[in-house]
Amino acid sequence: MIEDKVVIITGANTGIGKETAKELAWRKAKVFMACRNMKKCEAAREEIVLETKNKYVYCRKCDLASMDSIKKFVEQFKKEEKRLDILINNAGVMRPPYSKTRDGFELQLGVNHMGHFLLTNLLLDLLQQSAPSRIINISSIAHKRGKINKEDLNSDIKYDKAEAYAQSKLANILFTLELAKRLEGTGVTVNAVHPGIVDTEINRHMSFYNSWVAKIFIKPFIWPFIKNPRQGSYSVVYLACKPELEKETGKYFSNCEEDFVSDLAKDQSLRTWLWAVSERWTRLKETKDVMS
Known about the structure:
Elements: E1 6-10, H1 15-26, E2 30-35, H2 38-52, E3 57-61, H3 67-80, E4 86-89, H4 107-129, E5 133-138, H5 161-182, E6 188-194, H6 207-210, H7 212-222, H8 229-241, E7 251-254, E8 257-259, H9 268-281, H10 284-291
Parallel strand pairs: 1-2, 1-4, 2-3, 4-5, 5-6, 6-7
Antiparallel strand pairs: 7-8
Helix pairs in contact: 1-2, 1-8, 3-4, 4-5, 5-9
């Protein structure tokens, strides 16, 4: 049962995040929409409240491209709430032109991985206090072609937007599996999910979606295989709500079924390395000390 559960969803003002927020609101959860754009978030929140008649849906500022914004979000949330049952790390960017976050991370690595790494770790105490609780990381099948470039993790030397995206999605899986291991016995589960190929705003930087040739000659043939945002939310809602998954952890799902991860994702030394780098780059230990 999800009724009265406290849920945080990042990037909940559009696409899969919005549909997930709406579905959980229908099921009477208390939903916090953690978003960068407050105007869009408020518009989405109003729509969800009017449609579901659930007044316990809230907008909160959280820019995953800013560690300062993440810390402020966590501080405010902990003042308001004494529990957190479900954290859904949904926000993401896909194949943008080269740019960096406010803290100097390549944008895809920074938002898709580092931001969620910091956010999750700063909320772990609440999740553990609220156990059994769940963490759901939105990854992608793209992780299977991803590699972690240890020599140029931040794409400072060379930037390939597709490779950087795949790397960030592999980082999601490595983080999921390592965190699941670290949380064994706490009652907090951590799983990753590939929502499918979904037509959402995350595709706005892809030349395919902006090409009139593709729209006329190619898109009609592949359209039957592309999910809409509501369909894309099914696997996320499944992981959030299914009672049978209460103790399932450290797994990767696709189409509401467990799926296989890449061989690189199984590399324990790589998981350990990425965790150490993420911890250092986000200054996690110092931040925890300051916020405690």
